[in-house]
Write a structure and sequence with these properties.
29% of the residues lie in helices and 24% in strands. The chain has 276 residues and is of the alpha/beta class. Helix 1 links the parallel strand 1 and strand 2. It comes from Streptomyces cheonanensis. It holds the Pfam family Peptidase_M55. This is M55 family metallopeptidase.
């Protein structure tokens, strides 16, 4: 049986453009959750159109990882919900995963104009792996690739689609909106976005053997530029993490990509700690 994992973020969903729409405290968060759930359902339906016997896992991968409405999710899918958990945005990933889809993804920190661009949090200014700047798209694609699973599709704005296309040539993209600024875009109607996503997901799963996984061989050198000095102080308490030149950059060398990814996740959690 084919196992397909759908990792779903919120910033790249059609119609979503502002931070108040992506936060549980925001005035329009309830609508965004519904839009996100509907786009995920379109991807689930597409995967099963292409491979009716597939086992479909959905990883809720935005913020608290508790955004998708469980009762509204396609009942044929399994839902990975809540945090912290192994592999973060890729909850449910493992050596048995055959293909991964990214739904509602956004561009990396520093991209622009790009809707709600960032990398893991608002503190990471840049994450470089082997000298190459990677956002959540690249970091997660490489984690999937560690297990030999190709990312066969991404949906999001035009900048996210272009970023993904450079990393995974030949994979499918679904541009659901075109960025005008960090908090502005021209978007498809949600129903149109879902129809395109379902069609693309079906084709992407059928073609999964044609898409090469994005891999980063070990040892892996990582540098992270952090906006807050106290996050640098906390991160250097992790064995093997050092303060690099410039004061706001940390560096470490991991034996393999899975270790590199776990440390990056931990640094991301440290970013949420404020000085006592």
């Amino acid at each position: 049986m084919t196992k397909v994992l759908i990792s779903a973020d919120l910033e790249g969903i059609s119609g979503v453009v502002h931070g108040t729409e992506t936060s549980p405290e925001g005035y329009d968060y309830a609508r965004s959750r519904a839009l996100m759930t509907a786009e995920v359902n379109a991807a689930v339906a597409g995967v099963l159109d292409g491979d009716p016997g597939a086992e479909v896992w959905v990883a809720d991968a935005h913020g608290p990882f508790r955004n998708i409405l469980p009762e509204e999710l396609d009942r044929r899918a399994l839902l990975a919900r809540g945090k912290p958990r192994p592999f973060g945005m890729l909850g449910g990933l493992g050596p048995d995963t055959d293909a991964v889809l990214f739904v509602g993804y956004h561009a990396r920190a520093g991209s622009g104009p790009a809707v709600l661009a960032h990398t893991m949090n608002g503190v990471n200014l840049d994450v470089r792996v082997g000298g190459r700047s990677l956002g959540e798209i690249g970091l997660n694609a490489a984690m999937a690739g560690y297990f030999g699973a190709p990312v066969v599709l991404l949906s999001g704005d035009d900048v996210a689609c272009a970023e993904f296309g450079e990393l995974v040539p030949g994979a499918a993209t679904v541009e659901v909106k075109r960025a005008l600024a960090q908090a502005a875009a021209v978007a498809l109607h949600p129903e149109e976005a879902r129809e395109r996503l379902r069609t693309a997901a079906a084709g992407a799963v059928v073609r999964r053997a044609e898409i090469a996984p994005f891999t980063v061989p070990g040892p892996v050198e990582v540098e992270i530029d952090l906006a807050l000095p106290h996050t640098v102080d906390l991160a250097t308490l992790i064995p093997g993490v050092t303060r690099a030149a410039g004061g706001r950059t940390i560096a470490y060398t991991a034996a393999d990509y899975a270790e590199a990814y776990r440390v990056a996740l931990l640094v991301g959690q440290l970013a949420g700690i404020t000085p006592a």
